[in-house]
Amino acid sequence: MDEVYLQADQLAGAEARVDAMVREYHTKLARYLRRMVGDAEVALDLTQDVFLAAYRILKDDPQRELTAGWLYRAATNGAISFMRRRKIVRMMPLDRELEREHWRIDERSAASVDLQAALKRLPAEQSAAVLLTSYAGYSSQEAATILGTTSDAIRQRVCRAMRMLRTVMTEKATNS
Amino acid sequence: MILDECARAEITAGALAIGEATDVQREDYRRHLSRCSSCLTTLGGERDVERTMQLVARARGEESWTPEARVVIVRQTDIKRRFWQFGLAAAAALAILWLGARALIPNAPQNVAERTGAVHQSRVATPQVKRHAAAGHDLVVVHNVATLKRPPLTTPAHVAPKVLARGHEVPAAPSARNTNTAVTVVAAAALSQRDERSVSALRTVGTAPPQPGRAESIAVLPAPGISRDVAPLGGESAIVPHPPAIAYYENAEGTTAFDVSVDEHGVPLKCTVAKSSGFVVLDEAVCQAAMRARYAPRLINGHAVAGVYHDSLTFQAGDNR
User: What backbone torsions phi and psi does residue B211 show, to the nearest 5 degrees?
Assistant: First the structure.
């Protein structure tokens, strides 16, 4: 019983702002995180953690301005932390095809499935750079601000990620 | 300088992929690829980059997964909850430390001779209680010195022994030197004539009043002609048995009477269990402790001779904590 739902009368300001954020960014963040970690349930949990962190900040400091970039930064950090933990304890599926089947059920697009297969092989920093720029629509300067680096570094990461994407996705497209 | 140009081309390829490359950058990129075959292979031409990004854009456009928004859940990890968690953990740690300290420090032996004012303080038996602990269990060891195996001695004039048969108390006769002296021997059965002789031959000097949970003690003085009997160096407390943990878990109780053969140099030669406690582990622990100890040999007219040390230890299960 260590979890309680938000009480509306206690959380008027913070709750309203978090509600607005959830309506606007929940799906975008969940998709971004799902691409990062490769698991829908984990992505939803991490998304929940991002909004929870936002709520706590707003509860302590109602004047704080939380941008979408802050949400993506928190999501990226959460995903990288999760992937580091997963390196230590990794649940290997009995059937590797099962994992791909799971994506095929959610995604009707072969390109979407192939993109995930390519992203799985990339380091987290490169995945984040590609997803923030080409998927979430941020410029290299904005992505650099989110990830705490320079725009040239973001472009370099995107370029290196491109090699893997081209190898996997172009080959798949050619084969199909 | 070609390395710098390759690094620059890598960044430009990234800008092309994002769609941020200017016309000048595109022209530089083309010029570099025309001269650098490795970059052409690894980075690909403009068309390759655009084709790859089109696949990414298509994957993005065709993504159909739309999760349901969940209610934000707040875990109650506020200061109040953490205070209780920390407080409970600290209280538990203190309780464990306190119990551990109590289990490790043995109880101070009670000096019966001081309380009863006995004359022969060096041989007055003192029930020595030792507490050992294993995994939260206590085992109390009471040191008995009751032994009737000594040769009969003459009864001193100033002490009148009393014999109780089957719980019938006989009032103590007033003693000329010590009116507080009281000797209690509880017979397990009707005393025979030989027993009565043996008991009356004991030069008992006094015992403490019976205490619940403690063994009664009877002091015995050495026989005449023996300057000193066999005794462990360091006193009776030098024999400290360490029963195995199973004895604590099973709450093993009982009295182990044992005899230790000691040579003229005070070295224990053999330990024999005269009366078993009913638990082999306790008997073995007692004998091992007895063989670990060193002894003062028996002295007869100033000459050290071999002798036998008789003693018994009573184990009582303490409170389970």
Answer: -120, 140
